[in-house]
Amino acid sequence: MFKRRLRVILSGIKRYKGSPQEIGKQIIEDCWKNKYFRTSTGHFREFWTRDFGICTESLLNLGYKKKVYSTLRYALKVFSRHNKVTTTITPYNYPFDFPTYSPDSLPFLVRSLRLLGNRDLIDQYKDFLNKEINRFYDIVLDKETGLVRKDRAFSSIKDHSMRKSALYDNIMAAMLDNDLKKIRILNNSLKNYNFKKNIRDNFWTGEYFLDDLSGKKYMAGDANTFPYYCGVFTSKVMIKSSMRKIEEEGLDKPFPLKYTKASRMDKQFFLTKLISPNYEGNTNWIHLGLCYINVVSKVDRQKAGKYLREYTPLINRYRNFLEVFNNNRTPYQNPFYYCDEGMLWVADYLDAKTSFLSGES
Q1: Which residues contact 280 (CB under 8 A, 6 or more apart)?
Q2: DSSP H/E element including 338
């Protein structure tokens, strides 16, 4: 992280020429590294399973099918060689988990495979994937409750935080179950659980989803985005209720989306409190915002378009697509880190722009 800070001090942020759409296309090309998509051109120059999974559908819609296939083939080759699916693969082809096993790695890998629709690739790695499905079942689930275990810390989308059976992680289990049922040729160790019912019974307050099972009742942006983004819950009444609470909490201000209204330092690992305070607190995350805009579009396309337009001045100002912002619309930074640049997430921006803002430059 400190190397990233030094790089910005010495060289600044790369500034692309052209319209936001042209900038986005250049960033996607710069994220391509021979045979796979990196998550960014700056700090996160590795393959990240989660980030690629969030971008897969948009990349396919934008015409990058061959490169999506190549990325998944590369990831499966590396993962299978090391007998594990992880959060990340280094530029030197070594897979690792940051900081620990994450319940979203396998689900997003399987989701990407389902969206690609290449059965030959799935069949080629069928035995390995079946083993990883069983490993997910053994590591992640409380067999009695059918929920993510509360007795161990997992990595997650908020990988600097400690949560007890996070709602996001439970949604990942439900998404994996749903995708395995659609793919059919893979074994499904999760098939005997009713994840949707379990999640609703334990997390839905009647107005919004709880962040985790710690007993604390605060609102969280990811907890009220991914149940709908992943297609586990489709009720428009529930979506509108979660949206209303997000707006009441100001999680969509000045643009989508914050994880929480307060910084929640009590949830953060000790070391990250020192080197990246509030990094995943009440800062504004662009990938989370784009997922939220996708959800909003299911019930209010006009509002989704309004949210999306709020990113355009940021792209024009910095001539890039940055990772995370402070509430005053400036890039997140501290003495040890400066937010990342050239995010592959721009694919989601371009895809949404085609859907909601076609014809606008």
Answers
A1: 158, 159, 160, 161, 259, 268
A2: strand 337-338
Q: Indicate whether this model's pTM tops 0.85.
A: yes
Instruction: State how far the Cα of 104 lies from the Cα of 94, in Å rounded to an integer.
Output: 19
Task: Give the Cα separation of 316 and 120 in Å (integer).
Answer: 42
Alpha helices in the chain (DSSP H): 2-11, 20-31, 49-61, 65-81, 105-116, 119-124, 126-140, 167-183, 195-203, 226-229, 236-249, 270-275, 286-296, 301-309, 312-318, 346-356
Question: Is the distance from CB of 39 to CB of 342 less than 8 angstroms?
Answer: no
Question: Which residues in 266-293 are b (16+ Cβ under 10 Å) and which e?
Answer: ebbeeebeeebebbbbbbbbbbbbbbbb
253 in a domain, yes or no? yes
Is residue 361 in a domain? no
Q: Can you say how many angstroms the Cα of residue 297 is from the centroid of all Cα atoms in its chain?
A: 18
Taking the C-alpha atoms of 213, 219, 224 and 226 in order, what is their torsion angle to the nearest 10 degrees? -60
d(CA 149, CA 136): 12
Total domains present in the chain: 1
Q: Which CA distances in Å does 61 have to 64, 119, 179, 240?
A: 7, 19, 19, 27
Token pair recorded at residue 279: 């990094």
What whole-number distance in Å separates Cα of residue 292 and Cα of residue 61? 18
Where the chain has pLDDT below 70, the residues are 263-276, 359, 361
Residue 32 lies in a domain: yes
User: Within a domain: residue 49?
Assistant: yes
Q: Which range marks the domain in which residue 53 is found?
A: 2-356
Query: What pLDDT is attached to residue 270?
Result: 43
Q: For 152-185, how does the pLDDT look when each residue is reduced to its tens digit (9 = 90+)?
A: 989 999 977 789 999 999 999 999 999 999 999 9
Domain with residue 168: its CATH number is: 1.50.10.10
The pLDDT assigned to 164 comes to 94
Whether the link from the prior residue into 254 is cis, omega within 30° of 0, is yes
Tokens standing for residue 136: 């997910």
Sequence letter at residue 271: L
Q: Say what the pLDDT of residue 278 is.
A: 79
pLDDT confidence of residue 276: 62
Residue 225 has which token pair? 């985005």
Token pair for 224: 């009220």
